């Protein structure tokens, strides 16, 4: 965590940030957050992340006291104060302290700046393995702080040499624990439409490949794909070459995935130069 953070209404030393132990963010795991990164001091795609954070607050009945413009100003101040050339920014809004220890009230807002490491270069070159897990995220289209299932399950996937999980239910896939999923078959790209968080990186990929189909994708379609990749702020575009013990095609990152990775890097560069 970097030296300065925003806590409720002002910038303070991060080490002094605190939250009440009876906040339902803590006792019920009820809260929202969002996470984006800076590249050359520019908060990449900031508008999209702020819109999603504000939408998450509305959908979870939480009161966000700052407007989008005010949040953007706080973020710019934090980037300067923390000299955050390349790093992550985490906005958190807790459920608040309520009399019945259950109903959402006015929560605590924090904005932290962090170091951010991407997966090792070898993972982009060789692709990664995902472990299948029958699971549907609660309130999936909201970026809640509830990651209890994947945090618990991560011990298993690490044992199996997997990078993460791929969620499926009733024969259909949705997403990974912190990433969206795309499949490519015969040159056509598709991504699931149900039980997902609408990722900002997913949105950018759909700008780069304007023919992406957004539709239900079965688990067998995933296994039969020519290429699979995952997208996230913390991963950009990462090739997936194995699901459980089954290789995707020849087990190597495919040409369209590599093309999109290059196009995404150029998109990031252009956003920083604007
Ligand atoms: C459940 C879930 N799905 C997808 C994503 C990817 O979203 P983004 O590209 O906005 O990082 C995340 C990011 O943390 C996530 O938590």
Plain-language structure description:
The longest helix has 19 residues, at 255-273. The two termini are 28 Å apart. The chain has helices at residues 24-27, 46-59, 68-82, 121-126, 148-159, 200-208, 219-223, 255-273, and strands at 4-7, 10-13, 31-39, 42-43, 87-94, 109-114, 128-134, 164-169, 172-173, 180-185, 188-191, 213-214, 227-232, 236-243, 246-247. It has 2 domains: 4-114, 2-Layer Sandwich (D-amino Acid Aminotransferase, Chain A, domain 1), CATH 3.30.470; 121-273, D-amino Acid Aminotransferase, subunit A, domain 2 (D-amino Acid Aminotransferase, Chain A, domain 2), CATH 3.20.10. α5 (148-159) links the parallel β7 and β8. The strands form 2 sheets. Strands 7, 8, 9, 10, 11, 12, 13, 14 and 15 form a 9-stranded mixed β-sheet that branches. A 6-stranded antiparallel β-sheet has the order 2-1-6-5-3-4. With 274 residues, it is of the alpha+beta class. Bound molecules: pyridoxal-5'-phosphate. Residues 137, 175, 178-180, 197, 199-202, 231-233 line the site of pyridoxal-5'-phosphate.
SSE inventory with pairings:
Elements: E1 4-7, E2 10-13, H1 24-27, E3 31-39, E4 42-43, H2 46-59, H3 68-82, E5 87-94, E6 109-114, H4 121-126, E7 128-134, H5 148-159, E8 164-169, E9 172-173, E10 180-185, E11 188-191, H6 200-208, E12 213-214, H7 219-223, E13 227-232, E14 236-243, E15 246-247, H8 255-273
Parallel strand pairs: 7-8, 7-14, 11-12
Antiparallel strand pairs: 1-2, 1-6, 3-4, 3-5, 5-6, 8-9, 10-11, 10-13, 13-14, 14-15
Bound molecules: pyridoxal-5'-phosphate (PLP).
Residues 137, 175, 178-180, 197, 199-202, 231-233 line the site of pyridoxal-5'-phosphate.
């Amino acid at each position: 965590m970097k030296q300065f953070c925003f806590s409720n209404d002002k910038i303070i030393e991060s080490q002094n940030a605190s939250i009440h132990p009876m906040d339902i963010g803590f006792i019920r795991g009820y809260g929202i957050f969002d996470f984006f990164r800076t590249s050359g001091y520019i908060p990449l795609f900031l508008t999209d992340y702020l819109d999603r954070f504000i939408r998450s607050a509305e959908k979870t009945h939480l009161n966000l006291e700052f407007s989008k413009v005010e949040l953007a100003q706080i973020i710019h101040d934090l980037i300067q104060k923390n000299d955050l050339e390349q790093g992550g920014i985490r906005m958190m809004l807790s459920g608040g302290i309520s009399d019945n220890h259950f109903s959402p009230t006015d929560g605590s807002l924090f904005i932290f700046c962090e170091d951010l490491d991407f997966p090792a270069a070898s993972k982009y070159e060789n692709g990664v393995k995902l472990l299948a897990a029958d699971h549907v995220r609660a309130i999936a289209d909201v970026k809640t702080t509830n990651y209890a299932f994947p945090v618990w399950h991560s011990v298993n996937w690490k044992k199996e040499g997997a990078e993460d999980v791929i969620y499926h239910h009733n024969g259909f896939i949705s997403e990974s624990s912190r990433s969206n999923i795309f499949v490519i078959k015969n040159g056509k790209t598709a991504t699931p439409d149900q039980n997902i968080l609408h990722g900002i990186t997913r949105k950018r990929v759909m700008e780069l490949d304007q023919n992406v189909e957004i539709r239900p994708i079965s688990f067998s379609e995933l296994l039969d794909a020519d290429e699979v990749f995952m997208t996230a702020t913390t991963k950009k575009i990462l090739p997936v070459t194995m699901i459980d013990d089954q290789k995707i095609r020849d087990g190597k990152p495919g040409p369209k995935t590599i093309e999109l990775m290059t196009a995404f890097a150029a998109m990031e560069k252009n956003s920083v130069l604007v």
